[in-house]
Design brief:
The complex is a heterodimer of chains A (367) and B (324).
Chain A (H helix, E strand, L loop, with lengths): L36 H26 L13 H8 L7 E3 L5 H7 L3 H9 L22 H16 L5 E6 L6 H13 L3 E7 L2 E2 L2 E2 L11 H5 L3 E5 L3 H16 L5 E6 L18 H8 L3 H11 L5 H24 L18 H22 L1
Helix pairs in contact in A: 1-2, 1-3, 1-10, 1-11, 2-3, 2-8, 4-11, 5-6
Chain B lengths: L1 E4 H15 L3 E5 L15 H5 L4 E3 L4 H13 L3 E5 L10 H8 L2 H4 L9 E6 L14 H5 L5 E4 L3 H13 L4 E6 L6 E4 L12 E4 L4 E5 L3 H13 L5 E5 L2 E3 L3 H11 L2 E8 L4 H12 L9 E5 L10 H4 L3 H12 L2
Parallel strand pairs in B: 2-3, 2-4, 4-5, 5-7, 6-7, 10-11, 10-13, 13-14
Antiparallel strand pairs in B: 1-8, 6-12, 9-11
Helix pairs in contact in B: 1-7, 3-4, 8-12
The chains are: A alpha/beta (367), B alpha/beta (324).
Amino acid sequence: MTAEAPRGADAPPELIQLLTPEGERVEHPDYDIELTTEEVRSLYRDLVLVRRIDLEAVALQRQGELGLWASLLGQEAAQIGSGRALTDADMAFPTYREHGVAWCRGVDPVKLLGLFRGVNHGGWDPYEHNFHLYTIVIGSQALHAVGYAMGVQRDGADAATIVYFGDGATSQGDVNESFIWASVFNAPVVFFCQNNQWAISEPLEKQTRIPLYKRASGFGFPGIRVDGNDVFACLAVTRKALADARNGQGPTMIEAFTYRMGAHTTSDDPTRYRVADELEAWKLKDPIERVKAYLFKNQLADQEFFDKVDAEADALGKDVRRRCLELPDPGPEALFDHVYGAPHALVDEEREQYFAYLAGFEAGAER
Amino acid sequence: MTTLTLGKAINEGLRRAMEEDPKVLVMGEDVGKLGGVFRVTDGLQKDFGEDRVIDTPLAESGIIGTAIGLALRGYRPVCEIQFDGFVFPAADQIITQLAKMPLRSLGAVKLPVVVRIPCGGGIGAVEHHSESPEAYFTHTAGLRVMACSNPADAYTMIQDAIRCDDPIIFFEPKRRYWDKAEVDLTAPGLPLDRARTVRHGDDVTLLAYGPMVKTCLAAATAAEGEGRNIEVIDLRSLNPLDMGVITESVQRTGRCVVVHEAPVFSGFGAELAARISERCFYHLEAPVLRVGGFSTPYPPSRLEDHYLPDLDRVLDAVDRAFAY
């Protein structure tokens, strides 16, 4: 075991932080950031709204309207900070938990619900907002991101690629292969690892003996650890890494040190494998509370502002709920559509046969 | 007409595709300076540069995964898997991502990725260098699976595969790489999803693809002396399958033997036999018979002549089909 403190008790060493859990601004020589009041208020609003979307989705699952949901609770700052660092031309490759990044990219939250409700396997156009489809196989998307970045490089485009994954994914071969590819080809990609301390029930110690950000140096590019609950720091660090990528300086790995406050998914029961104290310790580092404290202390927002954001969040929650319930169940033709782009004799034949079979029931009902 | 080996025909096809479309890339292990272990990509890096003919790190999942990313960015990667038995580290990317992403996006994403795999035995190689893994891929919806058997087809099929917007697993019969034939470099090929009747006959239909087409043609020629008139169909496309050509032939001949190098059990021939029994039941004079590898791992090369279907095993099956 390493000599590090237990998860959550103290901040680990070499952690870039610009806003303490108490809402105090901290200077950093390499990663400082100037934010206008409006920008800080906007970040706060993002954090609150995505938490509300997430809460609504958990409730929808509990009521049987979603088959599953992967909650982002606790990881809002990592996702909003990194997501707001992206330019329109940048491309993001998510796991299945990046609801906050999707929000930053402009993806309608209801579109995220389709795969969890079971009406499709994803179903948004990745090019519309430069936000790729959710990927469920752990770590697969890291290679897609690097390949995409190699394409960006070949196009000579002023863009970077960011890929999200968790602490568990760092054990996957594909993630390690993606590090090698990115390094060898100097691909314009940022590896954004949200270390939320848990891969379902397995603690970080089951994945690594060294801090994750230190892995990067073995592959030949910089690794940085940032306070994943500090939206300012996540924004500053990701912005710098993306700029480096665009400027031909190759990949960076960011380890956002955070905590999965909820279960892995709604099917999971974390009380079986982690202690309540840990959760309590991390509650004190909440990503939203510290921004609120900062805004209050510095008189950058008043109660009216916070009430307004809360009201907006409630309205958004209701809207997401209503439109989730209105999502139409797909018809049987959706089984066969889009399996191939070009006509495919076998799929066409099976579609025809199945529809003839279904028509038989209708004919029977008419008799 | 130009005389080309099968390997050179694919090389010419790749060259033509790269000239035609600047988005076409070739990527894989040793495909650059070396020109691939079978020299199929010989000279391409010299002419198209290292950005379009990419020597990759030695990791097959990485090859397919990054090819998917390049395709998402609008490129048309042609990946080389060095040998059939090395495709399995890439199986996850092929099966869970390449095959399924277009559907996942409801058609917004196209993945025009070609995965070239030299396949089959007969070259005296060590373990993992002689396998026929086609059934793993024909079983995966979302993939198209092709197998070329001769230089002329190889030349057009590889170009058509690259032009196709769907992901394609493209099997190349490695022991036929050095077979030569006349190739018309200007004539269009048969559409990608069509089978070809390569020898007409009325007594029995042999179905084959890739390396076994030549074996079946030799068997048919030998049988001619015994008064048997054998039809040979080169399937070319395993998924989708050109059932029209197959059904017409078997309904006419009443007998069918399927030949492939892969193990017979759960092999692609099982699918053919089942489909033929569904469509030609009243025309069949005998059950559809299969000739292929045994239910054993591919053997050491000194035993491969026992394992691989040859002219005599094909004709033995033909005899058995006539014994009913």
